[in-house]
């Protein structure tokens, strides 16, 4: 990564509602955090963004049950409601369900899609990456919301 790319990433992080962000690519590693107390207390920032580390912290605490409730529908949705193949995010970025704020969504639940049709756009480092349908089928589930930050491998859409 060059200095301009890092500065752009820092500016986007600063303007976002994210509290922490980490990026690893071969020899490069970046960690941004708006949680100053955590940075001082924690010596290894890489484990912080890992979801399994956050779940045990959330489960025993009663005040943060909303996060536990959010985790339950994802697992139950994949078991009971979800049918079809999962289209996963190939990169980290911001997911957009439409080409613009005043434009219709690329796909909706129940839509028939053709192989190669754009399902979602993921913006990474100011580059818009179209995520195509891997096969013909029907959209059974949309797993992300517009302008949601997605990680590599996160489920975006299910196609049956």
TrEMBL record:
Write down the CDD domains for this protein, in alphabetical order. biotinyl_domain
Q: Which UniProt keywords apply?
A: Biotin, Fatty acid biosynthesis, Fatty acid metabolism, Ligase, Lipid biosynthesis, Lipid metabolism
Pathway(s) this gene product operates in, as recorded in its UniProt entry: Lipid metabolism; fatty acid biosynthesis
Tell me the GO molecular function terms: acetyl-CoA carboxylase activity
Q: Which residues form the Lipoyl-binding domain?
A: 67-160
**Which Pfam families does this UniProt record tie to the protein?**
Biotin_lipoyl
Annotated InterPro entries: AcCoA_biotinCC, Biotin_BS, Biotin_Carboxyl_Carrier/Decarb, Biotin_lipoyl, Single_hybrid_motif
Cellular component terms per the entry's GO annotation: acetyl-CoA carboxylase complex
What domain of life does the UniProt record list for this protein's source? Bacteria
Per the record, the GO terms for biological process are: fatty acid biosynthetic process
The protein's role, per its UniProt record: This protein is a component of the acetyl coenzyme A carboxylase complex; first, biotin carboxylase catalyzes the carboxylation of the carrier protein and then the transcarboxylase transfers the carboxyl group to form malonyl-CoA.
Q: What is this protein called?
A: Biotin carboxyl carrier protein of acetyl-CoA carboxylase
Species source reads Streptococcus infantis ATCC 700779
């Amino acid at each position: 990564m060059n200095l301009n790319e890092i500065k752009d990433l820092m500016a986007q992080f600063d303007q976002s509602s994210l509290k922490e962000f980490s990026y690893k690519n071969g020899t490069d590693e970046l960690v941004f955090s708006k949680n100053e107390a955590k940075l001082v207390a924690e010596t290894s920032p890489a484990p912080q963004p890992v979801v399994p580390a956050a779940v045990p912290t959330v489960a025993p605490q009663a005040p943060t049950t909303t996060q536990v409730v959010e985790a339950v529908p994802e697992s139950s949705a994949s078991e009971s409601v979800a049918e079809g193949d999962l289209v996963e995010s190939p990169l980290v970025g911001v997911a957009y369900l439409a080409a613009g704020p005043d434009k219709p969504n690329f796909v909706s639940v129940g839509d028939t899609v053709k192989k190669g049709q754009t399902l979602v756009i993921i913006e990474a480092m100011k580059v818009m990456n179209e995520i195509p349908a891997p096969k013909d089928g029907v959209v059974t589930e949309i797993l992300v919301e517009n302008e949601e930050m997605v990680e590599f491998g996160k489920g975006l859409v299910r196609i049956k």
